[in-house]
Specification:
Helix content is 2%, strand content 40%. The chain is an all-beta fold and 854 residues long.
Length: 854
């Protein structure tokens, strides 16, 4: 451990609540590469009633976005706060500058994130204040009293993976300063939906939702599911169960007819076949089952939208938007020319044919009642589960599998001056995309995966796609993770490894497979596990619906130093280790400080030391959000924690070791990206350019020395040129202003004749080179970076930031120009001297190699 690191005030341990506002690495900015070829899941949309050009779009896992021009451009307005996962957004009807935001998606499926309460903005989203319910984790809905906008009701579904928390219906009458719990059911049951009587806002309908999810386990309802009504603003409540199913009930969606407020609709999920669409004509006093229609997956959909123009016309979110025009007797799936899996629809009170909808594929708009649609391809909301990189020259590609949007790949930069265009991205796989791998010797061979172990091999040259999954005997089902781990051997690109509840190996690129093991998991029957204090019968509501198999591999790694040294982690806390190519195995099941059934989220075998391996665990699906990060120096026989001062509410998804410097490690967590120079005692956030977001995967492109980051909700990011961080990890933190090394700068022509057509969204190219320097304290005078040629002539002087910490500026490899229409001359290849100058005094020097790109 370098004592110089600990001496710096920047590197004090992080508090459990949050990272420091100013990291010493804050000068290093990551750049977004999008993409927007496909976007991501939309949870809610709110439109300013006084200016219908202003929309607020809540992404399920990509933050809050605002447009003031009906979607021509969007701006993220919630990037620096405590949550990326959002459930609902509401606008004060009397003062549209006041916005209420419920964090934590109001769904309960596999890929859901969690929130940290309710936020409020009084300046149209410029700034936000958290106003309460920090432990709610999932907000179902927010209603604002149209008469008294300081009176607000919040339906809190409550924690998904644990009991307790802020769960139930809450009310504030002072704009969020104080809250009262006005409807509480139990520690396991929250309130999912609330609706006003449009003629009498003191009359409120609320639905109680009992549910719990754990690893591979779901119970989607229970005996506490119910509909309630209050006629006095929540002072007292009445159960409305006459005519409803008497069996256990799950999620219930509610709506009140805008035309006849005595008519109430309820989409009820229930055990067996008792659920369906119910209608009341007497304010819920009694219900009539109109039909058997129910959502295909209530935990994911189950929202109702009454049409503002036509009585008894109701829209129901589902895989297809379902529509009834007869009060629920019949429903028809609307086959819109959009992505499927719908979550929201917004109506224009001035135009019945103007619709806006949100789904798993993003945001859409129609002006002809749904006959044709416009897709907003300017929202970079890709939800990457996993990413990978190839060795394409001159610019490598990034590939990633996305939630419900397949697998795509695209270059990290372009010869076009405007950067990487959306049209340069390729769709290479379908379904829910997960792990993708590229043959390191042939970038045209791309392996992609979809859910439950379905793999394909694509030849980009020919376009041929062949299945590459193991074929099990008809008598053996096998168990597969939703995100099945799959790797290419670092020792032979024809050798593939894949793991479910067994480990498989192929030596011919997936044409044939050989099972190497029996069951490598604990092989626990998930139906024997207690949930909410008991073991549930087979007919429990939505039992294990849309839930991955339990007892499966969750991570897989072969040592790049030792052929046949294989590690397999499982979703119930095991790491299986083979040192002889899968012939024999050693089981690890007790890890210091780690809960026994925690999921092994990632395994990283060292590229430097054959006996060193890293493992990350998470246990959030049992309500534990702590980071668990371990290191072994003896091939997994013993382990020590390297979680250091990672925030206490920020569990770890992935870990990567730098291929050039073993002291430099990176982790992706539920809320960000971190680096360490000292083996994990201290972790520094890399936040510049990256919002609060779940970092699911990390890849390092060795040739380019780039860090590639895959996020679940904001696409992919690049940290260009890791050379400075490698130097700091080796030499420690300098005590004086120091210019750090840069990788060779490659010269490429700008193909100025290439343009991006309108709507072909592009993301800027990186600078051809970066100058990175360390400042132990703020510089009070003038600071510049000067470049000299071989004859010590000044070719460029660049003004530089004076803030302490690691700072970086980019340079276009040009001499000064007259203006942007007359840029300076491009440098010739060669060796240049770079100087860090403070008040005309050179304090540090480095060499820069400029080479011809190719």
């Amino acid at each position: 451990m370098n004592p110089a690191i600990l001496a710096l005030p920047f590197l004090l341990p992080l508090t459990p609540a949050q990272a420091p506002s100013q990291s010493p690495l804050s000068g290093l900015a990551l750049r977004s590469i999008g993409p927007t070829l496909t976007t991501g899941r939309i949870a809610d949309v709110a439109i300013d009633p006084t200016n219908r050009s202003i929309w607020y779009v809540a992404a399920a896992s990509g933050g809050l976005w605002k447009t003031e021009n009906r979607g021509l451009t969007f701006t993220p307005i919630f990037d620096t706060y405590g949550s990326y996962s959002l459930g609902c957004v509401a606008i004060d009807p009397k003062n549209p500058s006041t916005i209420w935001l419920g964090t934590g998606e109001n769904a309960s499926q596999r890929s859901v994130g969690f929130g940290d309460g309710v936020y409020k903005s009084t300046d149209a989203g410029k700034t936000w204040q958290r106003v309460g319910l920090e432990k709610s984790e999932h907000i179902g809905k927010i209603l604002i009293d149209p008469r008294k906008p300081d009176t607000v009701y919040v339906a809190a579904q409550g924690p998904l993976w644990a009991p307790g928390g802020d769960r139930g219906l809450y009310k504030t009458t002072d704009g969020g300063k104080t809250w009262s719990a006005i409807l509480t059911v139990s520690e396991n049951t929250g309130i999912s939906d609330i609706v006003f009587d449009p003629k009498k806002p003191d009359r409120i309908y609320a639905s109680a939702y009992q549910r719990r999810r754990h690893t591979g386990v779901l119970i989607g309802g229970g005996p506490e599911g119910m509909i309630y009504r209050s006629d006095n603003g929540g002072k007292s409540w009445k159960k409305l169960d006459k005519g409803l199913p008497t069996v256990d009930k799950g999620r219930i969606a509610l709506a009140v007819s805008p035309q006849k407020s005595d008519v109430v609709y309820a989409l009820v999920t229930a055990a067996g076949k008792e659920g369906g669409f119910f209608r009341s004509t007497n304010k819920g006093e009694s219900w009539e089952k109109m039909g058997a229609f129910g959502p295909s997956d209530a935990q994911y959909y189950a929202e109702l939208f009454p049409d503002p123009f036509t009585f008894d016309k109701v829209w129901a979110a589902d895989t297809l938007f379902q529509l009834t025009t007869d009060g629920g007797k019949t429903f028809t799936g609307q086959r819109f020319n959009t992505h499927v899996d719908y979550h929201d629809i917004e109506f224009d009170p001035t135009d019945p044919k103007h619709l806006i909808l949100g789904c798993d594929g993003g945001l859409y708009e129609s002006y002809d009642g749904g006959a044709t649609w416009r897709h907003f391809n300017n929202l970079p909301l890709s939800q990457f589960y996993r990413i990978s990189v190839d060795n394409t020259s001159p610019f490598y590609f990034v590939y990633g599998g996305m939630q419900d949007n397949g697998t795509i790949g695209g270059p990290v930069r372009s010869l076009a001056p405007q950067g990487v265009r959306t049209s340069e991205w390729l769709t290479v796989g379908g379904g829910d995309g997960f792990q993708s791998r590229v043959d390191p010797t042939n970038p045209d061979i791309v392996y992609t995966s979809s859910q439950n172990g379905n793999f394909s091999r694509l030849d980009k040259k020919t376009g041929a796609v062949v299945g590459a999954s193991p074929r099990l005997p008809l008598t053996e089902r096998g168990r597969w993770n939703w995100d099945t781990p799959f790797i290419i051997s670092p020792h032979n690109p024809s050798t593939l490894w894949m793991a479910g509840n067994r480990l498989f190996k192929s030596e011919d690129k997936g044409v044939t497979w050989k099972p190497l093991t029996g069951d490598i998991t604990r092989n626990i029957d998930r139906n024997t596990l207690p949930v909410m204090g008991k073991v549930w019968d087979a007919d429990a509501v939505n039992k294990h619906r849309s839930t991955t198999d339990f007892g499966v591999a969750s991570s897989l790694e072969e040592s790049p130093k030792v052929k046949g040294l294989v590690y397999v982690g499982t979703d119930e806390g095991l790491i299986q280790i083979s040192e002889d190519d899968g012939k024999t195995w050693r089981k690890g099941e007790n890890f210091p400080g780690v809960p026994a059934m925690a999921t092994v989220s990632d395994i990283c075998a060292s590229q430097h030391a054959p006996d060193t391996v890293y493992a990350s665990f998470h246990d959030f699906q049992h309500g534990d959000f702590k980071p668990y990060l371990l290191k072994s120096l003896d091939r997994g026989k013993t382990w020590t924690s390297i979680a250091g001062d990672l925030p206490g509410r920020d569990f770890v998804w992935t870990i990567a070791e730098d291929p050039q410097n073993p002291k430099l490690l990176f982790v992706g967590t539920e809320f960000g990206l971190y680096a360490t120079f000292d083996g994990g005692a201290h972790w520094l956030p890399l936040k510049n350019g990256v919002p609060t977001i779940e970092v699911r995967d990390i890849a390092i492109q060795a040739k380019a020395s780039d860090l590639v980051v895959g996020t679940f909700g904001r696409g992919a990011y690049i940290l260009d040129d890791l050379s400075p961080l490698r130097t700091l990890a080796t030499d420690g933190i300098p005590t004086a202003p120091t210019l750090l090394p840069s990788r060779p700068a490659a010269l490429y022509p700008d193909l100025s004749y290439i343009r991006a057509a309108p709507g072909n969204v592009s993301f800027p190219n990186p600078w051809p080179t970066y100058f990175t320097y360390w400042l132990p304290t703020e510089v009070k005078g003038k600071l510049s970076v000067t470049v000299l040629d071989s004859k010590d002539n000044v070719v460029r002087e660049l003004e530089a930031p004076t803030t302490p910490g690691l700072q970086r500026i980019g340079w276009d490899l040009r001499q000064p120009g007259a203006n942007r229409f007359a840029p300076g001359r491009t440098l010739a290849p060669g060796t240049y001297t770079v100087q860090l100058i403070i008040d005309d005094k050179t304090v540090s020097t480095q060499k820069l190699e400029v080479v011809a790109g190719g």
